[in-house]
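I'll show a record.
***
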Amino acid sequence: IMGMFDEQPISYFDQFKNLKLIILIASGYDHLDFAYLKSRSVIVTNAKGIYDIQIAEDVISKMLYFNKHMHLYEIQKNKHIWKHQGVQEELYQKQALILGAGSIGKEVAKRLKGFDMEVIGYKRTFENLQNFDEIITYLKALNQYYKTCDYLIICLPLNQYTESMIDSSVLNQLKKSALIVNIGRGEIIDQDALIDALNTNRIRGAALDVTSPEPLPKKHPLWDAKNVYITPHNASSSPKVDARRMQLMIKILNQYLKKEQMDNIVLKGDF
């Protein structure tokens, strides 16, 4: 059972001669050497599903943080200033493009529909999904929605297809009023291009729960970019997460021991 930030060398696993199953307690698995684990026929499962609710709530909070000028009112409160800040954006009837219509993306979409938003989703394989107005499966088709979306929400895993997916060419297509929310991985965005887009007011802002690297160094220019809100990779935080994690681990272990169909397999081993 491995935590979110475990990055063990291959030699670490050599000591476990009878290793058959790794249960990750995080959704991401890009830090594992799958070629090595596959050569040993190890099964790997992830924690998809246990973080969906709290991360979806986090996405909404970040959108409202920008729309309602929460940061400005916090500054005014500390200075004892009573001053109205004009609101230019609502969620109502705006368009959200969710990159990654998986378990987290579905929970985000469910909540956005409560604000009567138009929700477009991207995933590599097509499904008719509740709470999505349209599902896109081709990267080129996304260009249409990069130009029209009001909120670009990134819920993707990091892999060879998604690394630097949001680069300068994408950022230049976004509306000036567009807001980016990233709860996937920092490397999915070209961070230098994002800093430039923020500092030149090319987009309205970016709310980031993930960065590259992590932790973000104190002197990194992203900290001082205009209209950026950074949280330390804690969108999954919840008082219920431990219970959800334990329930999932017990379920997967029981499935393995009973040789039943296993949930959340990300690497098929010898089963």
Remarks:
- The chain has a mean pLDDT of 94.
- DSSP finds nine helices and ten strands in the chain.
- The CA atoms of residues 110 and 199 lie 33 Å apart.
